[in-house]
Amino acid sequence: MTEAVSIYNIPNWLAVENKPSIFEIIAQENFSTSLKSGLKYLVQVFTNNYPDKCFKLNQHFDEIYLLFDLIVQALHLYQHEASFGESFFNFKRSLVNSSQVKLPPSKLISSFVFLVFTPYTKDKLNSIYKKLETIHYEKQRQLTWMEIKFVQTYPYILTSFEIFALFFKLSYTVGNRSTHSPILHYLGLSLTRDNFNKSLDKNKSSGTLSRLAGWLVNAFKYNLTVTAYLIQFLDYWYSRESRRIKISSLVIPPVPRKYTNTQSSKTCPICNRKRKNDAILKTSGFVFCQECIFNFVENNGRCPVTGYHSIVNHIVPLYIPEH
Predict the structure, then answer these.
(1) C-alpha radius of gyration, the chain, whole number
(2) Percent of the chain that is helix, strand, coil (3-state, to 5)
(3) Are 19 and 193 in contact (CB under 8 A)?
(4) Where would you tag: which of 59, 97, 109, 187 has the fewest CB atoms within 10 A of its CB?
(5) 280 by DSSP, 3-state: which?
(6) pLDDT per position as a tens digit, 212-263
(7) Under 8 Å CB-to-CB from 26, ≥6 apart: which residues?
(8) Across-strand partners of 95?
(9) What is the Cα–Cα distance from 29 to 25, expressed in whole angstroms?
C-alpha cells in the first residue's frame, strides 16, 4: 500500500495500489470548486468597496476566470497530464486498460476541452435558469415557449446527470469501475497516483520548452498553495454568510447628490410613467416599476438614481393595499 493511502487511514477495500480513494477524489473535486467560488467572493468584496473600478470585473467574472483556467489547465496537462486540482493532490490521468505511460495528444486535448468548458457551460446554464425562473415566478414578462420548457426541464436534466455521476462514484468505491466520472469514462481515462520523482527526471531530461512549462507549473502549484487554502476558507465563510442576506452588511455609500423630482411621486424614475408593480431598491430606497428596475440593475449593476452598486437581490416588491 502506498504511503499516501496509509496517511489517510483508508480501508483496503477503498484503495488499491496506485489508485486514489473515493475520499481523496471528492476532496480534489471540492478543492477545484471552492477555488472558483472563493475568488468570486473576493471579487464581490472588492466590487462592494470599489463599485466604479470593479463592476466590470464582477460582471464578466466567468469569462475572466475562463481565461485564467485555460492557461492553468493547459500548463498542468502539458507538464503533469493532470488538471490543477489533480496535480495538487498528486494525481495524474492514465489510459484505462493500457500499459502506455504517456497520454496521446488527442486525450490531452479532449481532457483540456472538458476540464475548461464543462464547468463554464454548467455555470452559465445555472445562471440562465435562475434568471428565467425569477422572471417567470415574479411575472416580470411573458417567457417564450422555449424559455418555459427550459425552466421546466433543466432541473430534471441536471438531477439526472448528478445521479448518473453518483452511480459512477459508488461503482468506483466498491471496485466495479476503474474511473469515478462519466466524463473520464467517456474519454477512456482514469486517475492514478503520480510519481513525483519521475516528474523531476522528466523535467531534467526535457527540452527548453518543457523546462519552462515545468517552472511555470511549479510556480502555480507551490506559490498558490497558501492562497488556495485561504480561498477555501473564504468560500466557507461566504457560504455561511450567504444564508442570510443583510442590508446592514453593505458598505455605507457617500451622501448622494440632492435628488429633485419635478414629476409625480407615483412616477417611475426610469420610464417616467406611472409605476406598475412597485418595487424598492434597498441600496438607495427609491421606488420603481419592478420590471424597469430589474432590467436596469441586471444590465448595469447600480441604482439608476444614486449610482450605488446593486444586484437584483436588493430589489423588493412592494404590495400597497388599494383604498
Answers:
(1) 25
(2) 60, 10, 30
(3) yes
(4) 97
(5) strand
(6) 656 665 665 555 555 655 665 655 665 555 544 444 445 555 555 555 555 6
(7) 169
(8) 189
(9) 6
- One-letter identity of residue 201: D
Buried b or exposed e, range 57-69, using 16+ CB within 10 angstroms: ebeebeeebbeeb
Nearest 5°: CA angle at 104, between 99 and 110?
120
Rounded to whole angstroms, the Cα distance separating 213 from 80 reads 10
Tell me the whole-structure pTM to 2 decimals: 0.63
In degrees, rounded to 5, the angle at the alpha carbon of residue 279 between the alpha carbons of residues 261 and 268 is 30
CA distance 131 to 97: 44
What per-residue string of b and e applies to 238-272 under the rule 16 or more CB within 10 Å gives b? beeeeeeeeeeeeeeeeeeeeeeeeeeeebbbbee
Q: Grid coordinates in use for 135?
A: 422572471
> Per the structure block, which three cell numbers stand in for 131?
434568471
- Please report which confidence band the pLDDT of residue 155 belongs to, taking 50, 70 and 90 as the band edges: very high
The amino acid that residue 33 corresponds to is: T
- By the 10 Å C-beta count (0-12 exposed, 13-18 middle, 19+ buried), 103 is classed as buried
